[in-house]
Structures are given as structure tokens and as C-alpha cells.
């Protein structure tokens, strides 16, 4: 049987910075949206265990389940303003 090894995510460095900012901040709309986005990105990813652990720590710190987070972010995204004025002219689907 092949030995499974953790992979390096191509967005790891940028995402690590984002996670550090989320951990140091408050649950603002932007932080909640970023937390949800990163949870989805890393949920089944075979690697980046530190990011996965820290995202779960933030959920626990903020007293949220994933379902509660996603309900909140759905409302946030319905306004369509969470990522406006951030200088992002590209989509981040990786």
C-alpha cells in the first residue's frame, strides 16, 4: 500500500497569514467570511494540519459550529459587500 503524505497547498503562505489575522481579531463580517472560505478550502485537504487546527480553534473561541458559521456567512454574502473595496479584482478558487 502506498504511503500517504501530506501535501503542500499552493495558497498555504497567504492563507497562513489570513488565519493568523483571524485568530488575532474579532468575529467581524470579513473575518467570518474568511473563516468560512478557508474551512471549505481545507476541510478535506490532505495537509496544512496547522491551518485546519487553527480554524477549528477559532470556531471554538467564537462559540460557533460550522453550521452556525455558514448560516451567518450566507447572510453576510447576500449583502454582497464583504469583499468590496479590498482591492481584489480576481477570483480565488484554488
Explained architecture:
The chain has 94 residues and is mainly α. It has a domain at 28-79. It has helices at residues 12-24, 29-42, 49-61, 66-79.
Question: What is the CA-based Rg, rounded?
Answer: 14 Å
Helix-strand string:
HHHH
* Fraction of residues in H or I helices: 55-70%
Distance between the termini: 29 Å
Number of β-strand runs: 0
The biggest sheet amounts to: none
Contiguous helical run count: 4
Quick take:
This protein is 57% helix and 0% strand. The protein contains four helices and no strands.
How are the secondary structure elements laid out?
Layout (H helix, E strand, L loop, with lengths): L11 H13 L4 H14 L6 H13 L4 H14 L15
Helix pairs in contact: 1-2, 1-3, 2-3, 2-4
Properties at a glance:
single chain, 94 residues, mainly alpha, 0% strand, globular
Amino acid at each position: 500500500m502506498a504511503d500517504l503524505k501530506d501535501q503542500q497547498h499552493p495558497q498555504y503562505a497567504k492563507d497562513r497569514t489570513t488565519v493568523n489575522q483571524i485568530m488575532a481579531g474579532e468575529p467581524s463580517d470579513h473575518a467570518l467570511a474568511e473563516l468560512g472560505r478557508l474551512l471549505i478550502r481545507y476541510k478535506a485537504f490532505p495537509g496544512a494540519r496547522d491551518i485546519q487546527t487553527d480554524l477549528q480553534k477559532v470556531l471554538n473561541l467564537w462559540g460557533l459550529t460550522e453550521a452556525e458559521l455558514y448560516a451567518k456567512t450566507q447572510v453576510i454574502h447576500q449583502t454582497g459587500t464583504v469583499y468590496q473595496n479590498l482591492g481584489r479584482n480576481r477570483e480565488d478558487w484554488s
